Amino acid sequence: MAQAGSAARGAGLRGAGAAPERAPWSWTLALLWLAAAAGTPSRRQWPVPYRRFSFRPEPDPYCQAKYTFCPASSPMPVMKGDDVIEVFRLQAPVWEFKYGDLLGHLKIMHDAIGFRSTLTGKNYTMEWYELFQLGNCTFPHLRPEMNAPFWCNQGAACFFEGIDDIHWKENGTLVLVATISDGETEAQSA
């Protein structure tokens, strides 16, 4: 006759109190389930495979720009062989015009390259701009009719005359990093 309270160990319990000999089988079943789940094709493929283009793809009508891309652009000037070109690193926090230095504390920066011709004294800036504004290219759009996250992240280089010295000095960085003369490059330690 069994005494009260002497029920078999683990009887009536599930999970943590189960008999130790069952634990390896539970893990085996869990691993088999994970392997099967990993092998089934999902609706979305991530990451999206990289494709190279020899041309700028037509933008999707979904991507709309609020502001004109590179409104102050100018052609890249011809540099003469006897000219000395100074190259500057330009950096300021992204959206500093709206949020000040907030994103700078998180090291989220906008970079550009500045050039100065010592022969003519003219300055030039080259920046990479997104065609559909920063928010559109930074964050993906989840569209129900598409199998993967959708990005409006086309961009292009914008080259224009002048360097906004005050902006870059007051809000970030304007540092000489190299000098180019007659095919020779002398890097500065920045």
Automatic annotation (TrEMBL):
Exhibits palmitoyl protein thioesterase (S-depalmitoylation) activity in vitro and most likely plays a role in protein S-depalmitoylation. Catalyzes the synthesis of bis(monoacylglycero)phosphate (BMP) via transacylation of 2 molecules of lysophosphatidylglycerol (LPG). BMP also known as lysobisphosphatidic acid plays a key role in the formation of intraluminal vesicles and in maintaining intracellular cholesterol homeostasis. Can use only LPG as the exclusive lysophospholipid acyl donor for base exchange and displays BMP synthase activity towards various LPGs (LPG 14:0, LPG 16:0, LPG 18:0, LPG 18:1) with a higher preference for longer chain lengths. This is Bis(monoacylglycero)phosphate synthase CLN5. GO terms for molecular function: palmitoyl-(protein) hydrolase activity. It is an enzyme of class 3 (hydrolase). It holds the Pfam family CLN5. Belongs to the CLN5 family. Keywords: Glycoprotein, Signal. Residues 1-39 form the signal peptide. InterPro entries: CLN5 (IPR026138). The keyword DNA damage does not apply. One of its GO terms (cellular component) is lysosome.
